[in-house]
Design a protein that fits this description.
Elements: E1 3-5, E2 13-17, H1 22-34, E3 37-42, H2 48-59, E4 63-67, E5 70-75, E6 86-87, H3 92-102, E7 108-112, H4 123-131, E8 135-139, E9 142-148, E10 156-158, H5 164-174, E11 182-185, H6 193-200, E12 204-208, E13 211-215, E14 223-225, H7 230-242, E15 247-254, H8 261-268, E16 272-275, E17 279-281, E18 284-292, E19 296-297, E20 300-301, H9 313-321, E21 323-329, H10 342-353, E22 356-360, E23 363-368, E24 376-378, H11 384-395, E25 401-403, H12 416-422
Parallel strand pairs: 2-15, 3-14, 6-7, 10-11, 19-21, 20-21, 24-25
Antiparallel strand pairs: 1-25, 3-5, 4-5, 7-9, 8-9, 11-13, 12-13, 15-18, 16-18, 17-18, 21-23, 22-23
Helix pairs in contact: 1-2, 1-6, 3-5, 4-5, 7-9, 7-11, 9-10, 10-11
The structure holds shikimate-3-phosphate.
């Protein structure tokens, strides 16, 4: 689907509630499926990716009842073999976390994905799971993954990359290991939703700096209220910062410090952002964010902050085109392994719009403030975050743009445009 975006000649104003966090939605379905009893998940994401996870657990014998955005999960605590392939669609989180769960079952499974997911690296999970005793067949470490269920043993694993998907995969495998403590250490702390939710469900899990350890545990069902997704909020945060005279409030956004790198970067650039009403729900921080149009300066983004804003880099690149001076993004080479190669994709498409941006092996350099001309077609590379970032860029282009493949927004945020229209 092609989407036309025209220059927005007026400010964004008003309040919206940001839809549910995708990472937390995936985990809510997975962990509730492993907990014996009835779990209630409120405010579940309506993105395609979390629904893909739900469908897979239904195939694995879990009963669920969806009413609007509430799901009731009924589980015996045990999964059942399904002889059909389990289709993870576009979702890396589904494939990597579910692999950790299935590797230690007493049955076999096959995981498949769409064109984009089938190109993404799975060595990062196959290697540690194999060290635990798992048997996984793949083609050059890529999907389809054929998993022969096995009894696993504990490992103490040091990951070369800060990745919540890798960390969670190993922890979920460790959850079922009969003896010993399974630990994962990463170079920097990545998002910790797995740790917080497993703890809330009674798992024997602990964190010490960048190391997380888990022992065999039975999970208890809980009621989970999912907060708004800061990765979805990011598009509105940037839009309000770059569309002159805007002032908006985003309600009930997740403010887990492992996810709020975008707020730190925006504030470092000079953004006028306030947190209005902060609360905590089973360890997850939630609050309202007020954003006002701001004059910005470029900055360097590197090191420990990268995993805290990894999914926001495409929209941060749009922001940087409107900041005075140079913005350098480094240490982000793993962006090349996302739904698309997000370094090449962002640089190519923002250049088409007229941005002064150059690609580096592990990031990009953006020089601002530049006038984006637009008057062109842009591509989305099967990548929802590219589609939404280009939409926001289109609002400040001098002439209209045409975004090809805009339907990819449905992966995480089907109501994206509807919510934008509420602020106009
Ligand atoms: C996610 C972790 C991140 C992120 C992805 C969701 C998760 O991936 O990019 O969109 O839910 O655990 P990595 O862990 O591979 O960095």
């Amino acid at each position: 689907m092609q989407k036309k975006v025209s220059t927005l000649n007026k400010p964004l104003n008003g309040e919206i509630t940001i839809p549910a966090d995708k990472s937390i939605s995936h985990r809510a379905v997975m962990f509730s499926s492993l907990a014996k009893g009835t779990s209630i998940i409120r405010n579940f994401s309506d993105g395609q990716d979390p629904l893909t996870t739900l469908k897979i657990f239904n195939q694995l014998g879990i009963e669920s009842d969806i009413k609007e955005n509430e799901i009731i999960i009924k589980s015996t605590g045990k999964l059942k073999q399904n002889n059909l392939p389990l289709d993870c669609g576009n979702s890396g989180t589904t494939m990597r976390l579910v692999s950790g769960i299935l590797a230690g079952q007493n049955f076999n499974s096959v995981l498949i994905g769409d064109e984009s997911l089938s190109k993404r690296p799975m060595k990062r999970i196959i290697e540690p799971l194999t060290q635990m005793g798992a048997i996984i067949e793949a083609n050059e470490y890529k999907a389809p993954l054929k998993i022969t269920g096995q009894d696993l043993h504990a490992i103490d694993y040091t990951s070369q990359i800060a990745s919540a998907q890798v960390k969670s995969c190993i922890l979920l495998a460790g959850l079922g290991v009969n003896d010993g403590i399974t630990s994962v250490t990463e170079p920097y702390v990545s998002r910790n939703h797995t740790e917080l939710m497993l703890k809330a469900m009674g798992a024997n899990i602990s964190t010490n700096g960048t190391k997380v350890s888990i022992q065999k545990s039975e999970l208890s069902p809980i009621e989970i209220n999912i907060c708004g997704d800061i990765s979805s909020a990011a598009y509105f945060i940037v839009a309000a910062l770059i569309v002159p005279n805007s002032k908006i409030i985003l309600k009930k956004v997740g403010l887990n410090p492992t996810r709020t790198g975008i707020l730190d970067v925006a504030q470092k650039m000079g953004a006028n952002i306030k947190i209005l009403d902060e609360k905590e729900v089973y360890g997850e921080k939630v609050g309202d964010i007020q954003i006002e149009y701001s004059e910005l300066n470029g900055c360097e983004i590197s090191g420990e902050i990268i995993p805290r804003l990894i999914d926001e880099i495409p929209i941060i690149a749009v922001l940087a085109t409107q900041a005075k001076g140079k913005t350098v993004i480094k240490d982000a080479q793993d962006l090349r392994n996302k739904e698309s190669d997000r370094i090449t994709a962002v640089v190519t498409e923002l250049k088409r719009l007229g941005a002064n941006i150059e690609e580096t092996p592990d990031g990009m350099i953006i020089r601002g403030k530049c006038n984006l001309l637009g008057d062109t077609e842009v591509e989305t590379y099967h990548d929802h975050r590219l589609a939404m970032s280009l939409y926001v860029a289109g609002l400040i282009c001098e002439k209209e743009i045409l975004i090809n493949g805009f339907e990819w927004v449905n992966i995480s945020f089907p109501t994206f445009e509807e919510l934008f229209n509420k602020l106009i």
